[in-house]
Amino acid sequence: MSGLFRPPRIAGSMRLFHDITDILSLREIIGATNLRKRTPEEYRILRDIVTSFERYRGVGNDIQLTLQERAANEVIMCEKKREYQKGILDPSKFAPGRHIFQVLHKIRRSPLFNILTKMPKGGALKVHDTSLCSTDYLIQLMYKEHLWVCTIDEGCCVVEFRFAEQKPTKGLHPEGQWEPIEQLRERRGEENLNNYLRRRFSMYQKESFENNAEAWRHMMGIFDLLDGLIQYAPVWAEYYYQALKEFHADGVQYMEVRTTMPQLYCLDGQKLPVRETVQIYQDVMKLFRKDYPDFIGAKLIYAPLRHVQPEVVGQYVKQCTELNKEFPGFVIGFDLVGQEDVGHPLSQFVEELIKLPDNINFYFHAGQTNWYGSHVDENLIDAIMLGTKRIGHGYTITKHPLLMQLAKYMNIALEVCPVSNQVLQLGSDYRNHPAATLIAENVPLVICSGSPALWCASPLSHDFYMAFLGIAPMNADLKFLKRIAKNSIRYSALKDEAKAKAMEKWKKNWEAWIDDVVKNKDKTLQQTPAK
Amino acid sequence: MSGLFRPPRIAGSMRLFHDITDILSLREIIGATNLRKRTPEEYRILRDIVTSFERYRGVGNDIQLTLQERAANEVIMCEKKREYQKGILDPSKFAPGRHIFQVLHKIRRSPLFNILTKMPKGGALKVHDTSLCSTDYLIQLMYKEHLWVCTIDEGCCVVEFRFAEQKPTKGLHPEGQWEPIEQLRERRGEENLNNYLRRRFSMYQKESFENNAEAWRHMMGIFDLLDGLIQYAPVWAEYYYQALKEFHADGVQYMEVRTTMPQLYCLDGQKLPVRETVQIYQDVMKLFRKDYPDFIGAKLIYAPLRHVQPEVVGQYVKQCTELNKEFPGFVIGFDLVGQEDVGHPLSQFVEELIKLPDNINFYFHAGQTNWYGSHVDENLIDAIMLGTKRIGHGYTITKHPLLMQLAKYMNIALEVCPVSNQVLQLGSDYRNHPAATLIAENVPLVICSGSPALWCASPLSHDFYMAFLGIAPMNADLKFLKRIAKNSIRYSALKDEAKAKAMEKWKKNWEAWIDDVVKNKDKTLQQTPAK
C-alpha cells in the first residue's frame, strides 16, 4: 500500500487518475491495497482518485464549456442548488419527489424551469403523433364547422367526435347519440363543457391509477376519443403545424414522430389512402420550415400497434417499405407501439421483421415495464439483436448489465421519458428513475416526452427539468444539458451532412440562449422561487 | 457475420457461450456483426448466447441443485408463477407492487410466503437491537411489575415508560404525568390501551408519510418510546432472548446485531456500566444456544448515532476498542447509525475512524438515500475506502458503477433491506428496487430486515418474499434462495473454522426443509392462493 504512494508519478492524485482510464485498472489498484492501513493523507489521495474517476465517466463530462457558458452555468447551478436546498429541508417540497399532477403548475413558476424552457434542446426523438398539441388547442378545435359529437349516458359522457355534413350513423358506440357540438354546448353550458373536455383529453381525469394497466387503458381511451377529431384531413394538417409550433416554442428544432399512419377521412366520410397522410406530414413540415428557418426538419417512424398476429406485422413491413420508397429520407424508421405488457413480444415477429430493408432503421420500444425477466423485459434483447438504432424507454435495461454494455458499445441511444414513466406508473419518485445508472455509466441517451399533451406538460421542458434536477446527480450541470441536447442530433436519423447542418442550426440558437441566460442573470437570481 | 457461424467450434450456441465468459468478448462479437443481415436461424443462435450469458451471470447461478432440491424447486416455482400470473392479470393484486402496510396480512396467507417462512435463511446480518421483538411481546411487557408510564395531553398520549419502585420524577417531557401502568389501563380500558400501544409501537400509526424525513422522525419517536421499557436490565435480557426465539422461529440461525450499546438501568434508577450490556447479550446468547442447539450464535456490531462531532466519534472508537478487548470475538464490528440525510458524512470522521484496530471490522451504513450526488450518497465512497466488510443498505450504489465493481471485486456484501426501504420512503414498488441490478451483476448481497418489528413484519421472511418475488428476475429460483442464505454465512464475521461449522448447521436444517417442501407438495399446491 505505502509503495503505491511513493513513486513520483503518483505523487498527485490527478496524475494517477489520468493514467487510469478504465474501471478494471482502478479496481485492481484499490482492491489490492489494505484499506485499513493508511494515513489520512493517503486516504484523501485515493478518495480523490475515485471521485475524479466517477466524475470523468458520467454523461456530459466530455464537454468543455466556453467562458460565456461557464457564466451561464453559474446561474443555472445557483438555481438548481436553490431547489435542492429547499428539498433537503423539506423533501415534500422537492418537485421531482412528487407526482407531476401535483406539481405541474408549481414547476412553471420555477426559475430553473424557465431557463430550461428556453434552452435549445435539439430534437424530440420520441413523440407520438396524436398526443402532441396542448389541450388549449384541442378546445379551439371544438369551434370548427361540421363537428359532431357522440355521447352516451344520457349526454353525460362524450365518446367520439366526427366532422361530417350529415349526422353520422355509425360510431364506436352503437348506443351513442350523435348531435352537433353546438347543441351539446348549448345544453351543458360553454364553460362547463370545455372544462369537462379538458379533463377528458388528459390523464388528469383521475388523481391516480390503481396500477399501470389501468393507466394504459385510460390513455388508450383518450387516443380513441381524439381519433375522430384529429384524423379529419384538414384538421390533421393544422394539428401537425400547431404541434411543430408548440415544440419549436419549447426549444425543439427537429422531430422524429412515431405514427400509426392512420387513414384520414374527408367531410363526406371518404377515407384517403395512407400515402396522403404522409404527404400532409411532409407538406406541413416543409411549410413550417419555411415559416421558421431555424427549424431543422422532421421525419416519420412508422409505428403501428403491436397487438397483432405475425402476418399483420408482415403487412406492416410491406407498408413501411412502400412508404419509404415513395418518401425516402422522410419515412425512415419502424417500431411497434401499445402497452408492451399485454402485446406480443418482438421475438414472435422476428421472421417478419428481418425482411425490412436495412435502409429503414428500427427504433423499437422495449422494456417499458417493471416485470423483470418477463417476455416484455426480454424485448430489450430482441430490440438490440434486431439492430435497433434507439430504444424507446428501455426502462428495465439497468437490470441487464450486458445489454447496457451492448447499447454503449453499439451506440444505441435510450429514449428516456421521465414523466411518461411516472404517469404510466412505472415509477413514482424521479430520484429512483433507472436512467441515473445510464447517466453514471455514460450509456447513450436522449431525453424525450412521448405523449406530453396527455399530462398537460410542456413538449419537452418538464422532462428535461425532471431529468436534470431529479435523475442526474446533484453536480450535473450545463455540460450534462449540452451533451443531452447534442445527443438528440447525434442519435437522430439525419445523415452525416444533414447532421452537421443541423448541429450548426442548433449551435446558433444555443449560443443565443447562453447569452440570454447571462444577460438575465440578475433578473433570474432575484426571483423568489416557488414555495 | 455469416463467417461467425461457419467454424465448427461455434456451431452450437452453448459451445460458443462457454468459451466467452466475459462481457467484453461477448459485446465485441455481437457489436462486430451487422445485426440487420442474418437469417432467422442465425438470429436464434445469437439470441440464445445472450440469454444464456445473462442467466449465467445472475446471483445463484453458480449453485447446482440436487435431485431432491429440484423437486422442491418445482413446488416453489409453481407457487411463484401463480403469484405472477395473478399479478400480470391485475397488477394491483401483486403484493410487491403495493405498500407493505396494505398487504402484510394478505402475504401471510400466501403459500409461497409460508414456504419461505420455514426456509433456513442462515444469518440475519443487519438488525437493530431495539426493534427486534414483535408487538405482541411488547404488549406482554405492559403487565410487568413496577412499570410506570408518562403521558401528556391530559393522559391521551403515552410518551415514556420506566420501571421503578417509586414514581419517577424526571423524564423526557417536563410536562408529562407519571402514573403506574395499571392506573392508565384502568382509566382507558385494557383493550383500548393495548390497541393504542400496538399502533404506537409501529409505523402503522400513519397510513403514509409525506416524505422520508417525516418517516424517520416517526421511527426515531418509537425508539425513544421503547428505550425506558427495554433498557431496564432484567427486561433487556428477556427481550433479547425473545428476539432470538422469534428470529430462530423464522429460520434464522445466526445474528449480527447492531447496538447503540445503551447503559441499562436498575429498579432504583442506577445505571450499569456498558460492559454489563454486552455481558447480558453474551450470557443470553449462550443460554439460547444451549436451549436451541441448531443455533449458531450471535455477535455485536457497536453502532452509535452519527449525529455527533468528530471528538465523539473518537470516543466511540475508544469504547469499541475496549469492549472488543474484553469481549473478543463477540463485539466484532463498528458502524454509525441514524438518518444519513441529516447526519454527518463519514468523510468528516475519517481521522478518528482509521484509529480503530483492524481486527475490528467496519460494517457501515451508507447510501441510504435517494439524493444522488449528495454527501450522503458519497458515504458509499468512504465506506468502501475505509475498508468496510459489508454496506448497510447501499441503496444508491447502482448509480455508481465503479463502486459496484469495487464491491464485487473486494467481496463487500450489500445488506439489502427491501421492506425498510419502502417504509422509510426510499422506494414504493419493489419491482423498482435497485437490488435487481445487483442481482443481475452478481454483486455480493444479503437480504436483511433492519427493524422488522416496527412494521410488524416477520423477522426476515417478508424481506425474503419481497426480494424473491418482487426484486429478483422472474426465473430466479431455489438457486437464488440458496445463494442468498449461504451468503449470509459467507459474509458474516465468523472466522474460517466457525464459518465451516456454521455452514454445516445451516445445511442440516436446509436439507430437512427441502424434504419438508417435497413432502408437502400436494398440500401446498392444493391451497387456494390469497385473493
Automatic annotation (TrEMBL), chains A, B:
Alphabetical GO biological process terms: adenosine catabolic process; inosine biosynthetic process
Residue ranges constituting the Adenosine deaminase domain according to the UniProt record: 210-505
Record key words, sorted: Hydrolase, Metal-binding, Secreted, Signal
Cited CDD domains: ADGF (cd01321)
Names of required cofactors: Zn(2+)
GO molecular function: adenosine deaminase activity; metal ion binding
Stored InterPro entries: A_deaminase_dom (IPR001365), A_deaminase_N (IPR013659), ADGF (IPR006331), Ado/ade_deaminase (IPR006330), Metal_Hydrolase (IPR032466)
Domain Adenosine/AMP deaminase N-terminal per the UniProt entry, residue ranges: 34-116
Pfam family membership, one: A_deaminase
Assigned EC number: 3.5.4.4
SUPFAM superfamilies: Metallo-dependent hydrolases
EC class: hydrolase
Subcellular location, record wording: Secreted
GO CC term (a single one): extracellular space
UniProt catalytic activity: adenosine + H2O + H(+) = inosine + NH4(+)
Predominant location category: secreted
Similarity remark: Belongs to the metallo-dependent hydrolases superfamily. Adenosine and AMP deaminases family. ADGF subfamily.
Name of protein: Adenosine deaminase
Species whose genome carries this gene: Drosophila pseudoobscura pseudoobscura
